[in-house]
């Protein structure tokens, strides 16, 4: 095994074990099996993790969409925006959160920055204990470049959310496969 591979795996494990998950129950309680439309978003590599999460929400039978896709329906009061943003202040994503709040959507945020503009606007916020782009270069605590550790930890976190939602909705892998694309 590559030494780098093991170091990255250890770093992700350390980030997961150092994350408190304050606000997790509130975050999980935002997601319900009703007529609520769930819109997920994030910029860059964070957006890739959120896109994968959106797919799993659909496999759970939820009305989930990734912002920017042509099939995103009209949303309004009571619908849900789920956001990934390490810094909690990426301008394009922050503007989306502001618009969502003005339209009375609920907002769930996963971030690495407890004190950010997005966290102040969110109905539920989970802070992952990883570096983010707003920290000074001297405070970087990852061997990996830039915000890679947040992106990886976010993906692991979102997969754990799926497991908890499976339990909440009495789903299993077999029932989710029934909603998977059958023509690929």
Strands side by side in the biggest sheet? 2-1-3-4-5
**Percentage of residues in helical conformation:** 40-55%
End-to-end Cα distance, whole Å, is: 33 Å
Q: In CATH terms, what is the fold-level topology?
A: Rossmann fold
Order of helices and strands: HHEHEEHEHEHH
Portion in strands: 5-15%
CATH class call: Alpha Beta
Biggest sheet: strands, sense, closure?
A: 5 strands, parallel
Give the radius of gyration: 16 Å
**Helix-strand makeup class:** alpha/beta
Number of domains: 1
What would the average pLDDT be, to the nearest integer? 93
Structure description:
This protein has 184 residues and is α/β, with parallel strands linked by helices. The protein has one domain (3-170): Rossmann fold (3-Layer(aba) Sandwich). The chain is 44% helix and 14% strand. It contains 7 helices and 5 strands; from the N terminus they run ααβαββαβαβαα. The protein has helices spanning 3-17, 24-30, 44-59, 91-102, 117-121, 148-168, 173-177; strands at 37-41, 63-66, 80-85, 106-111, 124-127. The chain has a 5-stranded parallel beta sheet, with helices on both faces. Helix 4 (91-102) links the parallel strand 3 and strand 4 (106-111). Helix 3 (44-59) packs parallel to helix 6 (148-168). The radius of gyration is 16 Å and the shape is globular. The mean pLDDT is 93.
